[in-house]
Amino acid sequence: MENKELKRKLGLWAAVAISMGTTIGSGIFSSIGDVAGASGSAIIVILAFFIGGLINIPANLVYAELATAYPENGGQYVYFREAGSKPLAFWCGWISFWATDPPSISIMALAIVNYMAYFVPMGDFALRILAVIIVLIFMFMHMKSVEGGGKFQTFITIFKVLPFVILIGLGIFYLRPELYSAPPLAESKTGLVALFAGISATTWSFDGMGAVCYMTGEIKDPKKTMPKALLISVLGVTALYVLLSTVVTGLLPMDDIINHSAPIAEAASRIPFIGKMGGNIVSIMAIIVIIGSLSSCIMFQPRIEYAMAKDGLWFPKFAEVHKEWETPAFSILVQCLVAIVLIFATNLTELLGYFTLVALMKNLLTFGTIFVLRKKEGYNPLWRMPAGYFMTGVAMLVTCILIWSTFTWAPTQGLIAGVLSVVTAIPAYIFFKKKYMDKMDS
User: Fold this and answer.
1) Could you give the CA distance from residue 247 to residue 168 in angstroms, rounded to a whole number?
2) Which domains does the chain have, with CATH numbers?
3) More confident residue, 405 or 394
4) Which Pfam families match (predicted)?
5) Which distant-in-sequence residues (6+ apart) come within 8 Å of 31 by Cβ?
6) Relative orientation angle of helices 101-116 and 124-144, to the nearest 10 degrees
7) Contact 38/194 with Cβ under 8 angstroms?
8) In this structure, are residues 418 and 361 in contact, taking their beta carbons and an 8 Å threshold?
9) How far apart are CA 101 and CA 76, in angstroms?
10) Any residues with CB less than 8 A from the CB of 186 and at least 6 apart, and which?
11) Treating both helix axes as pointing N-terminal to C-terminal, what angle do 278-300 and 12-23 enclose, rounded to 10 degrees?
């Protein structure tokens, strides 16, 4: 290996695939039930997904401007650094490495094998070994070629959207119009209160579109590509969710959507010639969907440590680019190895939940960097979003809704995680600054 720059090898559709592939995950299979429970009626559910998508457009516009201002790898870390706060930038990368990125890989790998066990029952240890094998497969693929990884990501994203499109295309012929005009459930909220509750419940379904910003340094012509990719992603995901919610609410009464653990599978089973195969079909869909998200995360997440190491705020070896493969192979390797260790940990999902509030605060502060960066000399994004401060405010408001809902769900855990992330990051930052960054600066 030797130190050199990563090359721009990914085009528009690879960027869209990373963004959409990260966003459309296993959550959509349960989120329709959550939105239905909050909304209480079919029309409100559909409107909630539609408006939920619209209000996520500003977040993507913010990311598009930031990505064209700093067309390099690292995403949020880079934006904090350029806003003048290296400690905050380090904190961003610190919690990404230890608290959110490898655990998310582990959880997705375990989710995939749990769906596989629906077809081939396996013991707990065998499931975990299979999860390790899956992580290793995608680790080697993304280590060996960013172009190959980009092509696979494009393919798997199309492949993961296709079953939803087929379900929508078939289900639309069997809709029950009376379900759309049915009165709201007696115990549910009504009017604007129900709509706002429904919109709030959709917000997690749209999270993750900014993932492609971690790889801006490897995107061709970022001035044109990044804004297009982020806008195509949010509009595409919104259209998919609106159509899917239209079909599900037109096939199932609200009670069934709310009370069924797998409402999409139940909706599929109401299509005459699918019937009892609905569960099998949705399990296959879930495997494909989560594989797409897993591949995307293994591809983009290690880029933040790569960027940190280039600045002397992480171990220098993470900044190395493989001589033949031209990827940050070591960074990918280490993150996946940490994820493999976590596959054998217990209560991993609960652990990740502890850091959800911290991750959301990181997003909120990222959007806030616009207010600082736009006043800096030399800030010259290749693309500027219209109504910049207003759009940024909307993006921050949406994130605040998520923060509030997360805090009310687990306030103690969130506060513990927040304090822990800061207390551990401070000495770590001092260590890396003295050992590596100060030497680079001198």
Assistant:
1) 6
2) 12-377+386-441 (1.20.1740.10)
3) 394
4) AA_permease_2
5) 201, 202, 204, 205
6) 120
7) yes
8) yes
9) 14
10) none
11) 120
- Judge whether 319 and 310 are in contact, CB under 8 Å: yes
Tens of pLDDT, residue by residue over 124-167, are: 899 999 999 999 999 999 999 999 999 999 999 998 898 889 88
- The set of residues, in sequence order, having a beta carbon less than 8 Å from that of 191 and lying 6+ positions away, is none
Look at residue 354 and tell me whether its pLDDT is greater than 80.
Answer: no
Element (H, E) at 21: helix 12-23
In eight-state DSSP terms, residue 79 is H
Place of tokens 């995901």: 237
Judge whether residue 219 has pLDDT over 70. yes
Contacts of 375 (CB under 8 A, 6+ apart): none
Check if the beta carbon of residue 20 is closer than 8 Å to that of residue 165: no
CB 95 within 8 A of CB 384: no
CA–CA separation, 186 and 310 (whole Å): 58
Spatial distance between the Cα atoms of 153 and 279, rounded to a whole number of angstroms? 26
Residue 291's SS3 state is helix
**Amino acid identity of 305?**
E
Give the contacts of 80 (CB within 8 A, at least 6 positions apart): 86, 88, 89, 92, 365, 366, 369
Count other C-beta atoms under 10 Å from residue 197's C-beta. Answer: 18
Please report, as a single letter, which amino acid is at residue 262. Answer: A
**Cα–Cα dist 258/34, whole Å:** 7
The model's confidence at residue 206, banded by pLDDT at 50, 70 and 90, is: confident
Q: For the chain, what percentages of helix, strand and coil (3-state, to nearest 5) are there?
A: 75, 0, 20
Signed CA dihedral, 66, 69, 71, 76: sign only: negative
Cα–Cα distance for residue pair 293/144, rounded to 1 Å: 19
384 within 8 A of 139, measured Cβ to Cβ: no
Asked if 172 and 242 touch (Cβ cutoff 8 Å), the reply is no
pTM: 0.89
**Mean pLDDT of the chain, nearest integer:** 88
Token pair listed for 261: 């653990």
Q: Given CA atoms 389, 69, 366, 142 in this order, what sign does their dihedral have?
A: positive
- SS3 at position 380: coil
Q: Are 428 and 97 in contact (CB under 8 A)?
A: no
CA distance 314 to 310: 8
Distances (CA, A) of 23 to 392, 416, 432, 440: 20, 27, 33, 37
For the chain, the C-alpha Rg in angstroms (whole number) is 22
Show the tokens assigned to 226. Answer: 């990044």
